Amino acid sequence: VLLNNLVLARFKISLGKSLKQIVTKHTPRASLGTQESLSKSASNSMSDEDDLSLKRKYDTISDEDRLKLILLIKDFGMSCHKASKVLNIAYNNAKVIYRIYKNEHRIRQTPKQQKRHAKTIRADEMRDR
Question: What is the DSSP string of 74-123?
Protein backbone atom coordinates (compact mmCIF):
# COMPACT_ATOMS: atom_id res chain seq x y z
CA VAL A 1 0.00 0.00 0.00
CA LEU A 2 2.90 2.34 0.75
CA LEU A 3 4.37 1.65 -2.70
CA ASN A 4 1.01 2.37 -4.31
CA ASN A 5 0.76 5.66 -2.40
CA LEU A 6 4.24 6.65 -3.58
CA VAL A 7 3.49 5.86 -7.21
CA LEU A 8 0.14 7.62 -7.22
CA ALA A 9 1.36 10.63 -5.27
CA ARG A 10 4.35 11.01 -7.59
CA PHE A 11 2.34 11.15 -10.78
CA LYS A 12 -0.99 12.53 -9.47
CA ILE A 13 -3.29 10.32 -11.48
CA SER A 14 -6.75 11.71 -12.04
CA LEU A 15 -8.88 9.05 -13.69
CA GLY A 16 -12.17 10.01 -12.04
CA LYS A 17 -11.49 8.13 -8.80
CA SER A 18 -10.06 9.35 -5.55
CA LEU A 19 -6.62 8.26 -4.38
CA LYS A 20 -8.10 6.25 -1.54
CA GLN A 21 -10.43 4.30 -3.85
CA ILE A 22 -7.58 3.37 -6.19
CA VAL A 23 -5.21 2.26 -3.42
CA THR A 24 -7.75 0.27 -1.40
CA LYS A 25 -9.07 -1.44 -4.51
CA HIS A 26 -6.10 -3.84 -4.45
CA THR A 27 -7.67 -7.31 -4.70
CA PRO A 28 -5.98 -10.57 -5.65
CA ARG A 29 -6.85 -11.95 -9.03
CA ALA A 30 -6.12 -14.96 -11.18
CA SER A 31 -5.46 -14.58 -14.86
CA LEU A 32 -7.67 -17.48 -15.90
CA GLY A 33 -10.76 -19.07 -14.43
CA THR A 34 -10.27 -22.83 -14.40
CA GLN A 35 -12.99 -25.20 -15.48
CA GLU A 36 -13.34 -28.92 -14.85
CA SER A 37 -13.24 -31.22 -17.86
CA LEU A 38 -16.34 -33.13 -18.76
CA SER A 39 -16.61 -36.78 -19.79
CA LYS A 40 -17.59 -37.65 -23.36
CA SER A 41 -21.06 -38.82 -22.39
CA ALA A 42 -21.80 -35.57 -20.57
CA SER A 43 -20.45 -33.43 -23.42
CA ASN A 44 -22.94 -34.94 -25.87
CA SER A 45 -25.90 -33.68 -23.84
CA MET A 46 -24.62 -30.13 -23.29
CA SER A 47 -26.74 -27.20 -24.37
CA ASP A 48 -25.56 -23.82 -25.69
CA GLU A 49 -25.63 -22.37 -22.18
CA ASP A 50 -23.19 -25.04 -21.00
CA ASP A 51 -20.85 -24.23 -23.89
CA LEU A 52 -20.76 -20.58 -22.85
CA SER A 53 -19.99 -21.43 -19.24
CA LEU A 54 -17.00 -23.61 -20.22
CA LYS A 55 -15.17 -20.83 -22.07
CA ARG A 56 -12.10 -19.42 -20.36
CA LYS A 57 -12.75 -16.17 -18.60
CA TYR A 58 -9.89 -13.70 -18.51
CA ASP A 59 -9.63 -10.95 -15.94
CA THR A 60 -9.33 -7.47 -17.34
CA ILE A 61 -6.56 -5.37 -15.88
CA SER A 62 -7.60 -1.81 -15.13
CA ASP A 63 -5.79 1.19 -16.55
CA GLU A 64 -4.64 2.13 -13.03
CA ASP A 65 -2.99 -1.26 -12.55
CA ARG A 66 -1.39 -1.01 -16.00
CA LEU A 67 0.06 2.38 -15.11
CA LYS A 68 1.31 1.11 -11.75
CA LEU A 69 3.00 -1.84 -13.47
CA ILE A 70 4.79 0.36 -15.99
CA LEU A 71 5.91 2.80 -13.30
CA LEU A 72 7.26 0.00 -11.11
CA ILE A 73 9.23 -1.47 -14.00
CA LYS A 74 10.46 1.71 -15.67
CA ASP A 75 10.89 4.27 -12.88
CA PHE A 76 11.62 2.10 -9.86
CA GLY A 77 13.77 -0.41 -11.76
CA MET A 78 11.80 -3.42 -10.58
CA SER A 79 11.79 -6.53 -12.74
CA CYS A 80 8.63 -7.40 -14.63
CA HIS A 81 8.25 -10.60 -12.59
CA LYS A 82 8.48 -8.85 -9.22
CA ALA A 83 6.16 -6.04 -10.28
CA SER A 84 3.56 -8.53 -11.45
CA LYS A 85 3.72 -10.30 -8.08
CA VAL A 86 3.34 -7.02 -6.18
CA LEU A 87 0.22 -6.10 -8.15
CA ASN A 88 -1.16 -9.68 -8.34
CA ILE A 89 -1.14 -9.68 -12.13
CA ALA A 90 -0.23 -12.80 -14.09
CA TYR A 91 3.37 -12.62 -15.34
CA ASN A 92 2.40 -13.26 -18.97
CA ASN A 93 -0.11 -10.41 -18.86
CA ALA A 94 2.51 -8.11 -17.32
CA LYS A 95 4.98 -8.94 -20.09
CA VAL A 96 2.41 -8.14 -22.77
CA ILE A 97 1.38 -4.87 -21.11
CA TYR A 98 5.00 -3.71 -20.88
CA ARG A 99 5.74 -4.81 -24.45
CA ILE A 100 2.76 -2.80 -25.72
CA TYR A 101 4.02 0.20 -23.76
CA LYS A 102 7.51 -0.11 -25.27
CA ASN A 103 6.33 -0.63 -28.84
CA GLU A 104 3.26 1.59 -29.06
CA HIS A 105 3.74 3.95 -26.06
CA ARG A 106 0.21 3.08 -25.00
CA ILE A 107 -0.94 2.33 -21.46
CA ARG A 108 -4.72 2.26 -21.72
CA GLN A 109 -6.72 -0.52 -23.30
CA THR A 110 -8.12 0.13 -26.75
CA PRO A 111 -11.87 -0.31 -27.19
CA LYS A 112 -12.93 -3.23 -29.41
CA GLN A 113 -14.32 -0.88 -32.04
CA GLN A 114 -10.94 0.79 -32.46
CA LYS A 115 -9.22 -2.59 -32.72
CA ARG A 116 -11.52 -3.67 -35.55
CA HIS A 117 -11.16 -0.32 -37.26
CA ALA A 118 -7.39 -0.47 -37.08
CA LYS A 119 -7.39 -3.93 -38.67
CA THR A 120 -9.48 -2.78 -41.61
CA ILE A 121 -7.23 0.22 -42.18
CA ARG A 122 -4.18 -2.02 -42.23
CA ALA A 123 -5.87 -4.39 -44.68
CA ASP A 124 -6.71 -1.46 -46.97
CA GLU A 125 -3.14 -0.19 -46.82
CA MET A 126 -1.82 -3.61 -47.78
CA ARG A 127 -4.11 -3.73 -50.85
CA ASP A 128 -2.92 -0.32 -52.02
CA ARG A 129 0.72 -1.39 -52.12
Answer: HTS---HHHHHHHTT--HHHHHHHHHHHHHH---SPPPHHHHHHHHHHHH
Range of the domain at 112: 62-129
- Which regions of the chain are under pLDDT 50? 12-45
| Structure confidence at residue 77 (pLDDT) | 92
Number of domains in the chain: 1
CA angle 99, 100, 101 (to 5 degrees): 90
The helix (run of H) or strand (run of E) holding residue 69 is: helix 63-74
Q: Look at residue 123 and tell me if it is in a domain.
A: yes
Model pTM above 0.85 = no
Which H, E and C letters describe 28-61, residue by residue?
Answer: CCCCECCCCCCCHHHHHCCCHHHHHHCCCCECCC
Residues 109-119 pLDDT 10s: 877 666 666 55
DSSP one-letter code for 62: P
